[in-house]
From TrEMBL:
Record's protein name: Agamous-like MADS-box protein AGL9
UniProt xrefs under InterPro entries: MADS-box/MEF2_TF (IPR050142), TF_Kbox (IPR002487), TF_MADSbox (IPR002100), TF_MADSbox_sf (IPR036879)
PROSITE patterns: K_BOX, MADS_BOX_2
Stretches assigned to the MADS-box domain: 1-27
Biased composition (Polar residues): 146-166
K-box domain sequence ranges: 53-143
Coiled coil: 90-139
GO cellular component terms attached to this protein's record: nucleus
Organism: Anthurium amnicola
């Protein structure tokens, strides 16, 4: 509009978040506002803007300048828009980046040291727990093998034939379990012995026991 119509244009926009945007074709919003007020309101009220309006506008300009400077500095830190900087400004920017890197490294180192201290503390706690468990095992451990060996020896002494084969146990059964069989076997043996002795005496020679 300013170019096509050869007019003085001023535009003020407030976003939903309350952010202010403005545009003025003659690079002086204040002059455009003064001209607007002179045309819209009585001359007596707008000849000299009130002091409060001037102060507010000056504060606005200061804040706007700070915001622009911060945005420009942020872009420079990101490596943007460096062409307009002088060698001195580039050196200052480099020093600022070095200071920032040192601060970041210091913070990172401190964080790693804190983590290392925490790990050492946990290691000491685990070593202490291990020492206590080892001490308990040393106190309780020697008794169990001796007790187990003693119990095994006692069990072996009370039943010495517990590990013998089954046929050995049958041979070692008391005679009282089957008296007729034992008695009969004994009588046959004595009779055979008497017959052998009698045959030897009569014949004067050796006679086999089975004859």
């Amino acid at each position: 509009l300013s170019v096509l119509c050869d007019a003085e244009v001023a535009l003020i926009i407030f976003s939903n978040r309350g952010k202010l945007f403005e545009f003025s074709s003659n690079n002086s919003m204040l002059k455009t506002l003064e001209r607007y007020q002179k045309c819209s309101y009585p001359v007596a009220e707008v000849v000299v803007p009130s002091k409060e309006i001037q102060n507010s506008y000056q504060e606005y300009l200061k804040l706007k300048g700070k915001v622009e400077a911060l945005q420009r500095s942020q872009r420079n830190l990101l490596g943007e828009d460096l062409g307009a900087l002088s060698s001195r400004e580039l050196e200052q920017l480099e020093n600022q980046l070095d200071v920032s890197l040192k601060h970041i490294r210091s913070t990172k180192t401190q964080l790693m040291l804190d983590q290392l201290c925490d790990l050492k503390r946990k290691e000491q706690m685990l070593q202490e727990s291990n020492r206590i468990l080892k001490q308990k095992l040393q106190e309780v451990g020697p008794e169990n093998p001796l007790q187990l060996s003693w119990d095994n020896n006692a069990a072996g002494s009370s039943n010495p034939y517990s590990r013998q084969p089954a046929h050995t146990e049958s041979l070692l059964q008391p005679m009282g379990f089957d008296p007729p069989l034992q008695i009969g076997y004994t009588a046959v043996s004595v009779e055979q012995m008497n017959q052998g002795a009698l045959a030897h005496t009569v014949n004067g020679g050796f006679v086999n026991g089975w004859m």
